[in-house]
Amino acid sequence: MGKLQGKVAIITGATSGMGRDTAYLFAEEGAKVIITGRNEERAKQAVEKIRENGGEADYVIADMSDRSQLKKIVDYTLEKYGTVDILFNNAGLLSITPTLSMSEKEWDDVMQVNVTSALTLTQLVAPIMKEKGKGAVINTGSIAGTSARWGPVAYCTSKHAINGLTRALARELGPEIRVNAILPGAIRTAMLDSVGGEETMSGMIEMAPLKRIGEGREIATSALFLASDDSSFITGQLLRVDGGIDC
Ligand SMILES: NC(=O)c1ccc[n+]([C@@H]2O[C@H](COP(=O)([O-])OP(=O)(O)OC[C@H]3O[C@@H](n4cnc5c(N)ncnc54)[C@H](OP(=O)(O)O)[C@@H]3O)[C@@H](O)[C@H]2O)c1
N or C: which terminus of the chain has fewer CB atoms within 10 Å of its end residue's CB? Predict the structure, then answer.
């Protein structure tokens, strides 16, 4: 039996990268998965791949920068699968704009996608999890959330905020709901490619004891740990998955 047999999981930002790898792994472990993102083609492909492998999945197209689109994710999940056990707040917007060029809109979008959407979706699923007596929420931070070294202002601030959000939610939503965060280092995804890929990360790779960038599947296995009963006594924690970078 899979570690998530019969569980229902919502994964935001699952049309690509580490969210998609997590959707594949959760489905392999028996979860029914709702994939979200803006790109319908990629959402469909991910769902088809899961179904071809014998898993259960569906998708909801929603733009996380628009707060009014979030409720339909939870509504569709309830309509389709009747409940929700796991929420992986993974969708993220990378901004590399320096402070003096930052528009209000860009700042607001980064905060909305990276932080506020995680709060809103948690507010929507928490009553269901509370009533069931059990649930797991996983947020996605970054090593840019523990040091200003790795990210320009909006991204860095949003990822620091996720740490506080995770701790505060864990405190408020227990004992039924566990809330933890994964803080990835450099992981091979489209987002990393958008800033030059592995080559631009040579300084980071050099600093890491494991001397390489990570793979999306390595985030997926960490998410599986935090979503499953393997982490049943763990909440409010920030799990760095970064090859051991010390800042
Ligand atoms: N890769 C890294 O090195 C790294 C390091 C630290 C933290 N992270 C974090 O890891 C998470 C996943 O990133 P990734 O590296 O896997 O990047 P990715 O491959 O670019 O995936 C990003 C995902 O977020 C979704 N997304 C972005 N903006 C959205 C919006 N406005 N509305 C709905 N969905 C949106 C994208 O979906 P659509 O394109 O379909 O909208 C996509 O599925 C992010 O939170 C990121 O900040 C990544």
Answer: N
219 inside domain = yes
Q: How many independent structural domains does the chain possess?
A: 1
Residue nearest to atom 43 of ligand 1 (CA): 13
Structural domain includes residue 138: yes
pLDDT tens digits for range 90-134: 999 999 999 999 999 999 999 999 999 999 999 999 999 999 999
Residues with CB under 6 A from ligand 1: 13-19, 37-39, 42, 63-65, 90-93, 113, 140, 142, 184, 186-187, 189-192
Angle at 229 between CA 228 and CA 232, to 5 degrees: 120
59 belongs to the catalytic site: no
pLDDT value for 204: 85
Whole domain around residue 123: which residue ranges?
A: 8-189+215-240
C-alpha distances out from residue 232 to 10, 49, 50, 217, 229, Å: 19, 30, 27, 22, 5
